[in-house]
Amino acid sequence: KAGVTQTPRYLIKTRGQQVTLSCSPISGHRSVSWYQQTPGQGLQFLFEYFSETQRNKGNFPGRFSGRQFSNSRSEMNVSTLELGDSALYLCASSSTGGSGELFFGEGSRLTVL
Amino acid sequence: AQRVTQPEKLLSVFKGAPVELKCNYSYSGSPELFWYVQYSRQRLQLLLRHISRESIKGFTADLNKGETSFHLKKPFAQEEDSAMYYCALSRMDSSYKLIFGSGTRLLVRP
Hints:
The complex is a heterodimer. Chain A is an all-beta fold.
């Protein structure tokens, strides 16, 4: 079974720009979660989608948004980038979400200049 | 608010020594606790979860609700255990998110 795939792996943006990150979950998994990982704040939950519905959202500003498509692929978008948005963005999929095991991707490393 | 605390950023032990990675949590309800591990150049992956009550790679963890702890233990550390370990909490009412601790880097010296 192919693992969780995230694209792009690395990207550099400047302040004020926007970015879209993509995540393809493991085949058959309907839940996709996103986490932001930084040295200072560690791993922080962004949001979770199941069958195209956002079921939970973390404490991030409205500039962070996401969506899930009918094939369970997910995208997250960050608008009006700030320097502090530089981070590793991890996507994880599971069959059910909730208390199920999460399978993580390798992450998309975003650098904002 | 829910919180997971891993007090040690780095734990260094010699091969064959016992290991205990500490994890404390704060949550008033019924939590589900996990340990995730990230080996060098690999993805974050589940090591074990408290409801399974199983031993994985020689590691065990017992949920102590009285002390609100979920420490990870292994009696004899191996060099291949060197990795970053994260304790995580999920609410049993299926809030569909994990709250992670800040992580502990375990270094097992030969």
